[in-house]
Amino acid sequence: IMGDQLNEAGATFLQSDNTSTGVLNDATTTTITIAMLFGAIIFTTASLAARLWLTGMWTWRNNTTSTTTTNNNGYSDSNGGRMTGEKSQPLDTSSLPSIYCLLYYSTVFGLILFYSYICENHPPYFHEEKTYDRDEFFFWTILVVVFAGGNSIRRNETIKMRSKQSTDSSNGGGGDRNGRGHTNNGSSRLQMINEDDQTQNTQNQVAPPPSPENEVLNRYQTEEWKGWMQFCFLLYHYMHAVEVYNGIRVFITCYVWMTGFGNFSFFYVTNDYSLTRVLQMLWRLNFLVFFLCMTHGNSYILYYICPLHTYFFLMVYVVMAIGKEKNYTKWWLRMKLGVCALIINLLWDTDTGIFEFVHRLFLSDEPVTGATMGTAWEWYFRSFLDHWSTLLGMVFALNFPIVSLFYRKLEARSRHRQWMGKTAMAAGMIFALCLWARGPLMYSKIPYNSTNPYFGFIPLLSYIYLRNLTPRMRSYSMELLHEIGKTTLETYLMQHHIWLTSNSKTILVFVPGWPRVNLTLVTFIYVFLSRKLQKLTLLLRGMLLPDDNSTCINSMVGLAVTIAGFYCTAFLVEGVAVTNLLTVGMVSMVSGGLLYQTVLDSSWSAYLKSVKEIKLKELTDEYGDDQSEMQEYSAELDEKNESIYTKSCPPLIGAMVLCVLGFTWNGFAFAGASAVGPLPPRCDAFVNDGLWIPIDGCDESSRGMAYRDFGVASYGTCAPHGNSYVWAWREQLARTHCRFSHRSEGKLKQSLNRRETVFIGDSMTRYVYHASVRAMGINESGDYDATGPKHADISNTLWGTTPFNFKWAPLAVDQLRILKDINRNAEGSDFRPPDLILLGGGAWDRLHVYATDEDRQSHAATLRELGREMQKAQMEYGAAVVWFIPTTINSQALNTEEKRDHMREEDMEAMRAVYARNGILSSSSFVIDGPAFTSSRVVESYDGVHYPIRVYDAGAQILFNALDWLLPPAIVEPATPPRVGKMANPNLGLMMLILVLIGLVGFDGFLGFSYLASLFVKGVMPRDLYVEAFSALHKKLGIAGPSRGPSPGPMPEPSGEDQPRVRSRKKKAATSANTKKSPRNRNVDEEIAALLT
Known about the structure:
Layout: H1 2-14, H2 29-54, H3 96-121, E1 128-129, H4 134-151, E2 153-155, H5 156-165, H6 189-194, H7 219-239, H8 245-270, H9 275-296, H10 305-321, H11 332-348, H12 354-359, H13 375-385, H14 389-398, H15 400-411, H16 415-438, H17 445-449, H18 452-455, H19 457-467, H20 471-475, E3 476-478, H21 479-484, H22 488-499, E4 500-501, E5 506-507, H23 515-544, H24 549-575, H25 581-623, H26 628-642, H27 644-671, E6 690-695, H28 700-710, E7 724-729, H29 745-752, E8 757-761, H30 763-775, E9 794-798, E10 802-808, H31 812-826, E11 836-840, H32 843-848, H33 853-875, E12 880-885, H34 897-902, H35 905-917, E13 926-929, H36 930-934, H37 952-966, H38 986-1001, H39 1026-1037, H40 1058-1065, H41 1072-1076, H42 1084-1088
Parallel strand pairs: 8-10, 8-11, 11-12, 12-13
Antiparallel strand pairs: 1-5, 2-3, 4-5, 6-7, 9-10
């Protein structure tokens, strides 16, 4: 009977319209805004492309710049600048090719956002839960980082040569693509200057200055560094490898350190504090995350890396900009960094309320996505974890010329003396590293968090020193990891939606049942789109934020006004309740049509004239002064341009493109799954449809786990078919949105906390009760105990707030009596009725009160009355009432004659039908089908009635999944966030102040460790290297001698296209001081290199 009802319900559902609620009903206002904005852009782009094609000028769209010398059309002459790696030119609103490039880039960007929205909200298959296997995690780490990375070891010169030939590595600014800080900075321009001195031997046994390819922390090395950290970071997220959390936390520290190191280096060298510089950096860090927040309706704090690096970038900017004219004196910068250290100590290391006072204007205690305790606590927590990292990066950057000279001085000594100094320093750093590894690194997550700001620099500086130990080590990098390190910002952001989903909590599935194949496919798309987004961000930045303050301001104001206008439109559409794809499409078409006409009015005539001029030149070269061909071509072009066909068709084609996207969106919404959330009520038809899957507990994975965790060498009870079972639900169509899953204690607490649950029934019901209690954290519930009472009530209070009780009621009359008492008590104002009532029975009635016709009639009457009470509990008191159908009987195992006569499976099947005929099933909010999870394991019923206790876990999980629609959303009481300032540690904060002071006064980027080498090697004490470290550069830059203060020293090299451009300028170094005072005279991309990217 239950099976027939399931089939009927399923058939009814499949005939219904799954999308009747509307595709955009759950979309936020910002999501609709983005849909309208990019819908208009896509419409305009498609219409312009159609117009160019219909007029025969499509092939000329990239060549009209041949008539100009300034190439101001916003794209590369050869191919429109479209994804070639060429740096885009500023937008020219009078140039059709320039406008088209902007629209094209924006269209591609919008389509990627659309893809991310589909993956998140309408994927083709249900999202899957993460699983962690220690062996697999380290297997992938070793495979990629060690073997694959090791197999790609190349000389940096080789990587540089390949980069020049690869469009992937020349991308409008190059270098550090993650925007999290900059490991290769603008000061590297002075590294190029040092190349002139490579053939000159300096005094005091100093080796020739290094080339950019073997400098300390050169670009190739730092991108390799970011690459392997990013791989481990992403794998940690994909597998939810919580046991390596502490190590991943150090990686974040390294990224924030790079922010201080790179930005300080840029400002120190270029002296560029212009608004353009700030806007370009903020664009790089926040452009993609801004549109992701709007597309998915998320909060900014969810993508915490971006606000973290934005905040600390601004800190570096303020520190460097104050009194910038004195930045090249010996002590001014060091004094500023010392003051900055004091401020950091007051904000984070003293619990005085200053941090909250400073930041409260921008933060609150309201829970948001990504900050369940409110943004105030979340920001304090995130910033506290790395509040010293940026400053330590700035200290290292300030001392970088001395660090570079320190290495070279050591390497100019004899091999014996050199290694004495290097070994002494390495021994000190390794000793500190071992103390950290045996101490803080071994802490659990929460205690470790409180130590990371104060000890995370130890592995960081140890890595830098050991990685740069020899010139040969500095001259080689792993090319694979170097490539991974180029797009760390995009891979970090997009992992939330197109690699993982549910804001990185679940896994995106394209190939269900094939996890490794699925990982391969999803990763390929994810990496490809991340690299594409990195290029789009740079290309759009180059067009909208050139090196001109007024243009930058106009661009930002224009963007803000445009987005605000579409937001107001979306808000209005929501207000009049017409939020649907048709409305979004109409707004997009109207807006796109206006934009299309505006573009034509402003640039089409000039573009047509330019095409004619190019054609005239070609024809003149071919035919001489014969103008007949030109007149014929001009007439043909004018005819095509003025025809009704070419004027009317482009907007129709644009509308068709939008319709295709709309149908695609609607198709995925109808046939696809949904974002992870509560199950809809229609899943009632499928939740009992599952089976037990045999699991081989003796496979390679389980044997490895047993060896690691229990010291087991081999198993002794393996079976070919598997000797353990797991309950699983059958695959459902994605359109059902029925993503059944195991409900953990944490999820159950969200559903049941502060709600009362009562189980009423016989021993079968009691077993399901025990299974439910076990799932909520009491693992010993239901254990076999012959000494305890068998037929008694059981009471539990879970989590100290949630009553969870069992009432012994084996007969229908007992169940009726208890339910009547509950309903009667609910009539009083002082009694709160249970939120969930589960009843079950039938076996005892069949055994004891079903022998005569009178018994059967009485039993039927009792059932009908019980059904009415069940309906009353639902309708009048709002309780969810669940009926549990008795499990399958193992007739052969029944242990008494009476049971064998009256409780055989065929007898119980008839009894189940009696309950159905008398309205018990129809009176229930939900029915748990006992035979559904016991019939296949009936032979395991040891007494004919009961099963091993773990079998009932399936019934409990069926119930827990049904809670999504049985109970209204839980009223979550606002959690009291921890007190801002509670993580402060004045003693460790004082320790950090002392270390910073050592770095500043001791002129040592390694915070004093470099002095260990001076115990064995004379002439390498960092404090004594100050004058020598900068003297070669002072003369070249025209800055006063080192007695007045240091000029910019040799800094890490630039990346990408920055290298050849900076090298070409080294002969002009004598006038660079004036150049630095006029930031508009140069292209910022060429200066900031990796920093902006």
